[in-house]
Amino acid sequence: MLRIIHQQTEARTELQRICARTHDDQVFRKEATVREILQAVRRQGDTALLRYTADFDHQTLTADELRIRGSELDAAYQQVSRELLDAIRLACRNIEAFHRQRMPKSWVQFHDDNVVLGKRYTPVDRAGIYVPGGRAAYPSTVLMNAIPAQVAGVPRIVMVTPPGEHKSLNPAILVAAQEAGITEIYRIGGAQAIAALAYGTDTIPNVNVITGPGNIYVTLAKKLVYGIVGIDSLAGPSEVLIIADSTANPVHVATDLLAQAEHDPMAAAILITTDMALAETVAAQVAHQLRDHPRQTLTEKAIAHHGVAIVVESLEAAAELSNQFAPEHLELEVADPWQLLEHIRHAGAIFLGHHTPEAVGDYLAGPNHTLPTSGAARYASALGAETFMKHSSLIQYSPVALHKVAGAIDVLTQAEGLPSHGASVQRRTQPGSTD
Amino acid sequence: MLRIIHQQTEARTELQRICARTHDDQVFRKEATVREILQAVRRQGDTALLRYTADFDHQTLTADELRIRGSELDAAYQQVSRELLDAIRLACRNIEAFHRQRMPKSWVQFHDDNVVLGKRYTPVDRAGIYVPGGRAAYPSTVLMNAIPAQVAGVPRIVMVTPPGEHKSLNPAILVAAQEAGITEIYRIGGAQAIAALAYGTDTIPNVNVITGPGNIYVTLAKKLVYGIVGIDSLAGPSEVLIIADSTANPVHVATDLLAQAEHDPMAAAILITTDMALAETVAAQVAHQLRDHPRQTLTEKAIAHHGVAIVVESLEAAAELSNQFAPEHLELEVADPWQLLEHIRHAGAIFLGHHTPEAVGDYLAGPNHTLPTSGAARYASALGAETFMKHSSLIQYSPVALHKVAGAIDVLTQAEGLPSHGASVQRRTQPGSTD
């Protein structure tokens, strides 16, 4: 079921096909629907929001019911086990510690002639976090989005998540939110939730940055409101690429592939190995472990359509194929992963060695699990505190410093045909000369 | 002609109107055109590219003529003055020095139980820089985009710019490109150039990040290809907001407002002052300086439609209005700009004191002049070397470290219903137990 490919040209074509699995022209058609939802919420506010919640989530809410009440937040703690709470707290600590590393810091530098240059970092005023409902209602998603916003120092963080049956929300999500310090939570989802966060309604505040994963409608809505607000990224289905040599354990490799495939029928699970025998054993193991897998149908689909094992001549060749794919998650299950790392250019997160399954990073190692997908690792990075921050350049010139550059600026403004640009310097350096 | 407003509610409404001047529903209609151009270039490559260049730029090119030849690059140096070349070189040095400051650096940290965590920064493989033609063909644009890409270490940087009459390009642009180390330049512009950079054609390489300003078609094209490639930002028309107290020189303030307005009829020029007399003198000065302004018509339009002077009670009130507007450029022409800075939360670049006209930053102080517009400074920042870089998270666990977190991961995977995630840890920590 996990196909094995030896031929390099075929491997390249196959990787390109898998990488492009979401760049679908069909997506364009859904944009019309999403645009309509955005416009409706923008113009009618809560009214449209409640109507779409009735239509799509089949829950009839009043505006008063949108926000989760304090009693519901308290009650959630009664519905999660002590073990789960402890695990959430361990994850919180590690995620916070990692995200506090190398935070952007404001700075100024003093140059000759009293010139001061610098950058001043500040958090955004308000952030909105989208947490999917249903099958993909993950407490880890809450932590991976909320904690970086807290570390950035965002004064107001709101969370939205679609209501389930009887207007209910997943208690683990409510507990994770509170552990991350968030208590302003609204039970709305879909493109209408993104619209509310972008434009604001009577009930929902408009925010400056929206982060968090969602289905295709949520992703399209984020793309359309980008420019009005900032967004983290356009999340596609998840993917893992494993580079393994003969030192890898095929049972572990197979399980890691399935741990990706079990997310979603669109998930991708790719093995690139220098060891033909390993590829065969892994393929057999995947089939074996799929036999009584609790999420068999969707996991099988992912493996069948977006799973592949590629056999290559060398680890360098494996790295080059991986760079072309630019995977969200990259596992290096090889004897010397740090040496191989030197050949890797593009990957969202890299898991080194035989004892680092992706799940460690998904939950609690500390680095963010919100990562670039579908080849976006060629230019994009994990979500971080900086997703919720921005900087202002700082420039201060003195009279003598301005005088020294006046000639050069004059020449440049003439070349660009912008007379008042020139005059703004001349009038300061040659008083009375031009007025 | 520069209206003066005293009433705070009116001031807020007016600033909102000016800030939202580009969030126009009309823009949506142009998207259909842009989408068609993107699809055509994606499917037909150079053929479509040449057809659109004939249609929109009225230049009939062959594919061979797309790339600027070495002889044209050499010839450009003969067409610029020694003074302009020197000014470009001064700007290059300052821009490079500033962008080399606080570059993101790769790091790893060693934790207990041989856990290694870190971030590894790498440049993108290929970057594409868009430089507008016609009235807005600015050598400074070239430097402000190309130098950060060079500082980031991008191995291949290509530039595109639309051809003028007789297929010509502005020699100052060609010289600036070469001074910034770029020699791969193509004479294409508009949405078709963005399409070529995003998808690649036989002649133009596809890139990973596209930066640079352009007209509404270019901006829409960048928005539509975002996700296939990274982009710097969606640049709107330029804007300045000046906060001035009674220590400001009204002639300088007026010139600085006009230096913004002369860019574009859509440019915004806003003064917020605590001094009613200053507002009146500035308004009179603006009218006076406009009388024989070489770009009178468009500059007058900008001042009339997107210019305003607001009189407020205090500098704190001025700062709060400025924060709501989140200007691209903010000048603090007050007695103590560093004290006022403490009240500023959102601005692309801040020019402090009486001797720092925006033009200093536009050309050569060092910080980037590609800045967030239309309120985007609430969440976005100047273009920088990091625009052309990304990082990979690094995670390595040891057997003992994995063993210690196995229980917590197990609980979390159960809460999220992802069995293979759990198994990927169990199979490593409890060999033989589950297989």
Automatic annotation (TrEMBL), chains A, B:
Q: Which UniProt keywords apply?
A: Amino-acid biosynthesis, Histidine biosynthesis, Metal-binding, NAD, Oxidoreductase, Zinc
Give the residues annotated as active site: 328 (proton acceptor), 329 (proton acceptor)
Residues the entry annotates as binding NAD(+): 130, 192, 215
| Substrates-to-products reaction catalysed | L-histidinol + 2 NAD(+) + H2O = L-histidine + 2 NADH + 3 H(+)
Q: Which CDD domains match?
A: Histidinol_dh
Cofactor annotation: Zn(2+)
Binding-site residues for Zn(2+), renumbered to this chain: 260, 263, 362, 421
Q: What is its EC number?
A: 1.1.1.23
Which of the seven top EC classes does this enzyme belong to? oxidoreductase
Q: Which residues bind substrate?
A: 238, 260, 263, 329, 362, 416, 421
> In what pathway does it function?
Amino-acid biosynthesis; L-histidine biosynthesis; L-histidine from 5-phospho-alpha-D-ribose 1-diphosphate: step 9/9
Xref: SUPFAM superfamilies = ALDH-like
Cofactor note text? Binds 1 zinc ion per subunit.
Q: Name one GO cellular component term.
A: cytosol
Give the transmembrane ranges.
none
Q: Name one GO molecular function term.
A: histidinol dehydrogenase activity
Q: Name one GO biological process term.
A: L-histidine biosynthetic process
Q: Which family does it belong to?
A: Belongs to the histidinol dehydrogenase family.
* NCBIfam families to which the protein is assigned, alphabetical: hisD (TIGR00069)
Q: What does this protein do?
A: Catalyzes the sequential NAD-dependent oxidations of L-histidinol to L-histidinaldehyde and then to L-histidine.
Q: What is this protein called?
A: Histidinol dehydrogenase
Instruction: Give the source species.
Output: Halomicronema hongdechloris C2206
